[in-house]
Specification:
The protein is of the alpha+beta class. About 30% of the residues lie in helices and about 15% in strands. The chain has a domain of about 80 residues. A hairpin with an 8-residue loop joins strand 10 and strand 11.
C-alpha cells in the first residue's frame, strides 16, 4: 500500500505538520482566538487580509514562528512594538519624538516628514503593517496599508534598514509565509540536501514522489519559487527548488530524527 502524499502544502499545513515534530513547544500548533484578532482589528481600525488572518487563527502561536525570523502578533488594544503588529508610521512617530530631543538632528527623510501633516506623509513614504522581522532586526516585512483589503496581498521589506525605503519581498502573503517558515524549519534541523539531478530523481523515486506533480506551481502569486510533497505516513517533507540564476535545482528532505 502506497503512503499518502500531499503536494504543494499550504503554510498552515506545513506548520501544523512540523510543529509537533520540530517545534520547541509541546504538542500541536495553536493559534489566536477570533476574539483576540477581532479586538485587535477593532482597535487598529482595519481588517487583516484573509491569508494572514487565517494563519494567525490556525497557528499564530506555534513556536516555529520564532525559530529564526520572528512573527509579530495581534494585541487586543493594538498596542505597538514589542513583537506586536505595528505600522511603520508608529516607528516614524517614535523617531519624531526621539529626534526632538536637544542635540539630536533630523536625518533627511525625517525632516521631510516633520514638515508635513500626517495625512501627507505618503508623499515621502507609504505606511506598512509590519508582521514579521529578521532574527537580528535587519529588516521588517510589511503589507502596504492600502493593500490590506486584498485577501492575499504582496509583501514588502525595508531594504535600507529604515522606515522610508521599501522593496518587494514576495508576491503574496502565502508565498512569504511558505518561504519564511521553510527557513525557520531549517534552523536547527538539518535536512538532507541534493543538487545532482540524477541523485534528486533517485531520492524521489525511492520515496514514490511523482516528479511531475511535485513541479506543479502553488495556486497563489509567487508560488513557483519552490514545490513541496509531504508523505504523511513516513513524516517526510520533500522541498524542490527549480534552477534559478546563480543556483542549481535542489531537493531538501526533512524528516524527524528516529527515536533510539
Amino acid at each position: 500500500m502506497m503512503s499518502e502524499k500531499r503536494y504543494q502544502i499550504s503554510p498552515i499545513e506545513l506548520v501544523q505538520w512540523a510543529e509537533p515534530l520540530f517545534g520547541f513547544g509541546v504538542g500541536k500548533a495553536t493559534g489566536f482566538s477570533e476574539k483576540t484578532i477581532a479586538s485587535y482589528e477593532a482597535a487598529a481600525g482595519i481588517r487583516l487580509p484573509a491569508a494572514l488572518r487565517d494563519y494567525y487563527r490556525a497557528c499564530g502561536k506555534a513556536s516555529l514562528n520564532c525559530a529564526l525570523h520572528e512573527i509579530f502578533v495581534p494585541d487586543k488594544k493594538a498596542n505597538p512594538f514589542k513583537k506586536r503588529l505595528t505600522f511603520s508610521y508608529d516607528h516614524i512617530d517614535e523617531d519624531l519624538e526621539i529626534f526632538s530631543q536637544p542635540g539630536e538632528e533630523d536625518y533627511p527623510e525625517l525632516a521631510k516628514i516633520r514638515a508635513l501633516p500626517r495625512e501627507r506623509w505618503g508623499e515621502v513614504t507609504d505606511n506598512y503593517l509590519l508582521f514579521w522581522c529578521e532574527n537580528q532586526g535587519c529588516w521588517y516585512a510589511g503589507i502596504e496599508a492600502e493593500d490590506l483589503t486584498q485577501p492575499d496581498p504582496p509583501v514588502y521589506y525595508n531594504d535600507q534598514d529604515d522606515m522610508y525605503s521599501w522593496a518587494p519581498f514576495s508576491n503574496s502573503v502565502q508565498s512569504f509565509l511558505l518561504d519564511i517558515m521553510l527557513q525557520n524549519l531549517e534552523e536547527g534541523n538539518y535536512p538532507d540536501e541534493f543538487e545532482d539531478p540524477v541523485e534528486i530523481q533517485k531520492v524521489l523515486s525511492e520515496g514514490s514522489v511523482d516528479f511531475q506533480r511535485l513541479c506543479e506551481a502553488y495556486p497563489f502569486p509567487g508560488g513557483r519559487f519552490c514545490h513541496t510533497c509531504l508523505d504523511t505516513e513516513t513524516n517526510t517533507l520533500y522541498v524542490y527548488g527549480e534552477e534559478a540564476e546563480g543556483r542549481p535545482a535542489y531537493l531538501k528532505v526533512f524528516k524527524p530524527d528516529e527515536e533510539e
